[in-house]
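Q: Is it fine to ask for two folds in a single conversation?
A: Yes, each is treated on its own. Send the first.
Q: Here.
A: Result:
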Amino acid sequence: MSSKLKVIVVGAGLGGLSLAQSLVRVGIDVQVCERDRTPWDRAQGYRLHLDADGINAVHEVLPANLRALFDATSQQTLPFTTILDTGLGVVKRLPTQDEHDEQLWPGPHEKPTHRNVDRATLRQILLSGLEGVVHFDKRLEKYDAGKDGVVAYFSDGTTTTGDVLVGADGIRSAVRAQRAPRCQIVDAGVQAIYGRIPIEAGRQVLPSESTEDIFTVASDERKVFLGLASVAFPVPPEEASKALPAAQQLKKRDSYFVTIVGGRHELFPLERSAMKSAASEELQRIAADLLSKWPERAANAVRAGDPSSFFFVDMYTSVPCSLEAPTNVTLLGDAIHAMTPTLGRGANLAMRDGALLGRALTSVAKGERELAAALASFEHEMLRYGFEVVREAAKVGQQRMAQNALPG
């Protein structure tokens, strides 16, 4: 290993960027290589629920000015998941744990409330200050790992050499395919249409709990479900970021409700290939039609959405597995423990992974631990909590949306 630790991160999602921010803060040489051409190439969802893992990870890895920006643009919610009937009346409000682990997040970390955030805004905050660190349009083809380091080979013909390679490249991870080919990602049997409802239009048709609580959801006997949640910016992103350099200022975004209509594959009128290529307006119509047997209020909520905002999502899950003896290549987030969104914890665990791996690599850079021991400890803990949540998400998904059972 070189005298100065160099880390290659494949994937610029929330977990990979959390790791990069953690390493940059302590002066570790890190390069993030992302296959997308720009940060905005793919629709990846709108609202995220952050619990203690996500909030504390953000507070740990970001410098003070970006922490303040995160706080200014995240909506604090009441700690409830609300169950609605098909007419969008409130059935019950279920208390939701904040997942705060005092051993994991000791010291100055506050015990936070839950927050709803806009995924794109959070990602832009995590990208801030990483100019020259994050490189787009860099698709990993393969890597060679040995005792002297790792060489990453990209589709543009370039290579990058480092001491550690981290696969943070999502459910279709090229790193996982080589590092852990027996670790499977499988179809969950469920799909969904996501859209965005302007905040004022949503308030006219939705119960107040959809604004106040973490999430509201209704379902029917088919396990077709309608999920609703708000992203109400305390401060508009473009206003909150004015103190940053112009290149890092946040894009203008308005407050909104996310709407999610989903169910088993066979309940949708088009094959998945056609759903993936369908126009936004067509997806909005399909989503409203899936609720046609419900009281009109539900379909009207979907029809109140921005017609240009709807997109299709297939749902997948990891199958719990083990990693072979640690090497200088590791994985985090959806690249190893992808889960369906029934618990709202996927992004939180990815950022937790990034923060904890940052701690481990910092200890290596300081000469406090050997690399192999640090990665072994990280992987042991990450697999433990990651697959614990994968199993629980699958269990709840079977109950709420007829998700496939995990193999085995």
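Q: Second one now.
A: Result:
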Amino acid sequence: MTGAYRLTFPLGLDPEAAQIPRENPLTEEKIRLGKRLYFDPSLSVDNTVSCASCHLTEAGFADPNQFSFGVGGQKGNRQAPTVINRIFSRTQFWDGRAGSLEEQALGPILNPVEMGNPKIEPVLERLRADPSYVGAFKAAFPEDGAITDTRVGKAIASFERTVMSGNSPFDRFLAGDASAMSESAQRGYKLFKDENKGNCETCHVSFNFTDENYNNIGVGMHLKNADLGRHPISKVEGHQGAFKTPTLRQIASTAPYMHDGSEKTLEAVVAYYNRGGRPNKWLSPKINVLKLSSQEQEDLVEFLKALSGEVVWYGK
């Protein structure tokens, strides 16, 4: 009999904000199965690429490469976003095309550049041919143990919901430890919050430092065939070149930055915003020239580094 799995949230995170669908409650058996699937390259057409190939534990569950490599050495065109704290987000991917983690988990399996399977059925057949997977699905879904695409998605999503980052120097500082952040980071925190200076909280809000919204900040908009981001999905005027605001949690571990991995360091990211992004027809009105001094930019970087802390996931 499976039972509910109780998550332990690191300091600074809000358990009440967790997005766990009623139709996919967390159980240890399901999470254990999802973890195995997450690290299993046999989900790809040539047994070379797993979820973990592009979302590495040692790189903040992101990819240190600008673009990830899929089957046959093919290369994607967007930077792999971190899996960290996805439990607090409903829509997934840079453009929000997946309405849930369950949907997101299946996307790469059928992507011709990533895992390369033209259909899901051969993947399911490989799993059904493995007695250990048959047993694992039976434990995770005891009603009948059937191995289906929906259940693959549910299992992987369940594991991904255990991947969290909190208990950072910033969290300890807020909790009363005045020595947890350096003086530079404390100055950076004030800049971050100051709507007349950094103005960062216009998008990077709340405990997870994201408004879960889509904004055009100008990245890549100078290119001839610019990536239009959210617009092809939403068809909303103004969403051209708009991408989802990423969490800033564990950001010191997830370089390079932006949806195209074009900024290699946090210093470069802050300098980009300081310049007011890249002007274009659909630039968000939230983006303006900041006119921060060199010291202020340095302080802001130190604060961003203070948002990296303890990364936990099932079995760690």
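Q: Anything structural to flag on that second result?
A: Two points. The mean pLDDT is 97. The beta strands are 164-166, 214-215, 243-244, 310-312.
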